[in-house]
Amino acid sequence: MSLVGFILLLFIAAVAGAIAQAIAGFSRGGCLASIGIGFIGAFIGLWLAQTFSLPTLFVINVDGEPFPLIWAIIGGALFAALLSLIVGPRYRYRSRG
After folding, report:
1. What is the pTM of this model?
2. Residue 42 maps to a domain
């Protein structure tokens, strides 16, 4: 895989992770968190698709490497929802004064 292909794959994973975080309502971390959620979501989504014999939808090939965009978003949303249950809400404290 070339450097340009790898950067493009990271960008696609970041977009998928950001959409998944928006669906789940969990937005901690920045771009690196979105990339991680996008890649983990792709693994979870493909596992779900293979377990339930569902078709792979909208696969993007980057330098011969397939990336299932729809399953990455679905799996990423499930992973982000699980993270939000484990981590809990983020409170912002304001000083009284």
Report:
1. 0.81
2. yes
